[in-house]
Amino acid sequence: MDTSHPNISIDFHGPIAIARLEDEKILDETQLQSLEGSFLPLIDQNPGLQLVIDFTKVKFLTSSVLGLLIRISKKVYEKEGALRLCAINPKIQEVFKITRLDKIFEIFPSWEDAVVGLKKS
Amino acid sequence: MTKQDNILHKSWQLPSTAKAIQKACRDLLGYAETHGFGEDAIFGIHLALEEALVNAFKHGNKSNPEKIVFVECLITPEKFDVSITDQGDGFVPNDLPDPRCNGNLYKCSGRGVLLINAYMDVVEYNELGNSIHMIKYRQSQAPAVEDCDC
């Protein structure tokens, strides 16, 4: 099943959802609210969701996006799911490293790597 | 381009609205690009500008559109130099908790100043704490921050 939201596209593979961020730059409050409005209901409606967020298209983000990822992470684990991030470009990886968020998020080179080990049913 | 042509000095007085702030940020980045700053430097300048401008209009001016954000920029062959001042009460940068320390890692905010410090070569505040002065040198090194104590 493929579901489109304004700035993410989601592929479901059983309990695994691969959410691809579609915006090259994630900057403003409207984008953040739109992302939050897409992710939080998705997690609420699918307890145990194995969520992979794919950053392939993202070239720039601010600290507000990091805050949103933490909110998403808390919600996923509250619903007994799992969260993995993938395909983060080197400049944004550096942002995760500086803030030490690379220690709390599981980050993989690609979505194919990220789904390995997730529950398929 | 002569050396004189390669110097830009410009200032803005912006209402505290997201639209005005975003336009100023785009203009500033455009000037950095036309003055030959590289991709890595532009990424760092962009991140620092976004964080500092949002701090000014949202936290400093409480998103009150009647309050002004003052921006002054000087670009020379050596550096990108910008000051951002709001009309708020200011803050004490050294009092901010380090977002990398264990208890704060899961907090949803408080990373902007850390990122500004990492990506800009000079970061200074006025005494009141409502004005930030940042410099990115053209020959800047990779982003770096001091270790935290935890």
Question: Could you characterize what this model shows?
Answer:
The complex is a heterodimer of chains A (121) and B (150). Chain A has 121 residues and is α/β, with parallel strands linked by helices. Chain A has four helices and eight strands. In chain A, helix 1 runs parallel beside helix 2. The longest helix of chain A is centred in the N-terminal third of the chain and has 17 residues, at 29-45. The two termini of chain A are 15 Å apart. In chain A, the strands form two sheets. Chain A has a six-stranded mixed beta sheet. Chain A has helices at 29-45, 63-78, 90-98, 111-115; strands at residues 2-4, 8-13, 16-21, 25-26, 50-54, 60-61, 82-86, 107-108. Chain A has one domain: Transcription Regulator spoIIAA (2-Layer Sandwich), CATH 3.30.750. Chain B is α+β, with helices and mostly antiparallel strands and 150 residues long. Chain B has a single domain (8-137), classed as Heat Shock Protein 90, CATH 3.30.565. Chain B contains three helices and five strands; from the N terminus they run E-H-H-E-E-H-E-E. Chain B has a five-stranded antiparallel beta sheet, covered by helices on one side. In chain B, helix 1 packs antiparallel against helix 2 and helix 2 (39-60) runs antiparallel to helix 3 (112-119). Chain A binds chain B through residues 27-29, 60, 62-64, 66-68, 70-71, 74, 91, 94-95, 98-101, 103-104, and chain B through 18, 22, 40, 43, 46-47, 50-51, 54, 99-100, 105-109, 111-112, 114-115, 118, 142-143, 145.
